[in-house]
């Protein structure tokens, strides 16, 4: 399955889960969906469903004074972590660190 097809499948599944939640709770979900789509492209497929699912669960079950701001902060921190790891791999910093530690 191509990356874009996998992303579309996960996005469709998440949209269905959000619709179910809205039907069950009788309230509208106000999570920033574009952030979910951004995470679908950045987070590796093996971790994607778990990480996004955990964020969604935390967002919907835990009371926060500013839930959208909290969600933004979590996504930015998460993406920064993945981008930093990718940058280290590209720059060869991981390989250099492993050689130094030996």
Short description:
This protein has 5 helices and no strands.
Distance between the termini: 39 Å
Radius of gyration, taken over Cα atoms and rounded to an integer in Å: 17 Å
Counted by DSSP, the helix tally is 5
Mean pLDDT: 76
Summed up, the domain count is 1
Strand content: under 5%
How do the SSEs run, as a string of H and E?
HHHHH
In helices, the fraction of residues equals over 70%
Oligomer: single chain
Describe the largest sheet: none
Model description:
The chain is mainly α and 102 residues long. It has one domain. It is 82% helix and 0% strand. It contains five helices and no strands. It is elongated and about 55 Å long.
Q: Which descriptors would you attach to this protein?
A:
102 residues, mainly alpha, 5 helices, 0% strand, elongated
Topology diagram in text:
Elements lengths: L2 H23 L7 H10 L2 H17 L5 H25 L1 H9 L1
Helix pairs in contact: 1-2, 2-4
């Amino acid at each position: 399955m191509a990356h874009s097809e996998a992303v579309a499948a996960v996005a469709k599944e998440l949209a269905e889960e959000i619709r179910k939640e809205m039907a069950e709770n009788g309230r509208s979900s106000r999570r920033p969906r574009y952030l979910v789509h951004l995470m679908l492209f950045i987070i590796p497929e093996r971790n994607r469903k778990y990480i996004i699912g955990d964020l969604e669960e935390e967002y919907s079950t835990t009371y926060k004074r500013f839930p959208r701001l909290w969600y933004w902060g979590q996504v930015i921190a998460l993406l920064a972590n993945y981008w930093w790891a990718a940058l280290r791999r590209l720059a060869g910093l991981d390989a250099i660190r492993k050689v130094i530690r030996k």
